[in-house]
Amino acid sequence: MPERKSILASIWNSAPLRTLLGAACLLGAVVSPAAAQKPGAGRLDDPTLSAGDLKIEARRATLLMAECFVRGGRSFVMNFIAYPAESKQARWAWGQLGYHRWCLPDANMKFSGTLLRGALFQALYLRDFGATDAGSFAAVPVIDYAATYRAKSDKTFESAVGQSRFGDCVVRANPVTARSLIRSKIGSPEELSSFANLASALNGCVTKGRLVNFSRSALRGLVAEGLYRLMAAKAGKTVSSNAIQSLPRDAVAASMAREAGRNRSKAL
């Protein structure tokens, strides 16, 4: 039987999700009784789709997965985003999220830690502040993004902080369009229009002398992080996470069951 650590690493390194799902079953991963129906893979297995359409469907499936994680394992989500996305510690935190196997779409989908982090921030924003107008963030103090991360000795730390500051800058420059972007359907005309309307803010926030090349998925994720953190700061909420130690499977399952119970209570 494959080791759990190597299984979770395989999905992180862009292995097909189907491999992890089968292995998770072998490992006896516990399914929460309150878990919602598994996110669908959309049209990812449709052989008639073009390469461009497949990318859009993969982005949508990643967001559905992130929304499922936020509903069923928020404390594990907050633990994950406390680390630079491509750090060794984030890989370990993904191992904890990986126990929520019902959230993984059954499709040959690939993603990086950076794209997962961005999708999680989108899901957090839509759940906590999606119905709230952004307004202006002029009165919101500067956020110390270095303090939002643990694992400050990791080689990816400085890059992660710089990206977070970039997203913050874009949102402050054009909060209305930033909100429209995160609320838009992935791959829709509204999303394309929002990206176009953010062009000035994006260019204005690039550090002079630096060449930046982000995909739409990455940009959407950075804007989502800036929007979520600024909305939280404006509302006087602290975005923090207590470090979750490496737990045995039974302990993780028990924690997940408690979170599922809390979500059930909130829904009643």
Topology of this protein?
Blueprint: H1 4-12, H2 17-27, H3 51-72, H4 74-80, H5 88-97, H6 113-128, H7 157-173, H8 175-183, H9 189-197, H10 199-205, H11 216-234, H12 249-267
Helix pairs in contact: 1-2, 3-4, 3-6, 4-5, 6-11, 7-8, 7-10, 7-11, 8-9, 8-11
The largest pleated sheet is described as:
none
Write down the overall geometry: globular
Poorly predicted regions: 1-37, 244-252, 263-268
Strand content: under 5%
**Relative helix content:** 55-70%
Oligomer: single chain
Distance between the termini: 41 Å
How big is the Rg?
18 Å
What is the structural class? mainly alpha
Q: Give average pLDDT, whole number.
A: 74
**Counting H and I runs of at least 4 residues, what is the number of helices?**
12
Order of helix and strand elements from N to C terminus: HHHHHHHHHHHH
Number of domains: 2
Task: Tell me the number of strands.
Answer: 0
Summary?
This protein has 268 residues and is mostly helical.
Question: How would you explain this protein's 3D organization?
Answer:
The protein is mainly alpha-helical and 268 residues long. It folds into 2 domains: 1-25 and 35-112 and 248-268, no CATH class; 124-237, no CATH class. It contains 12 helices and no strands. Helix 4 (74-80) runs antiparallel to helix 5. The model is unreliable at 1-37, 244-252 and 263-268 (pLDDT under 50).
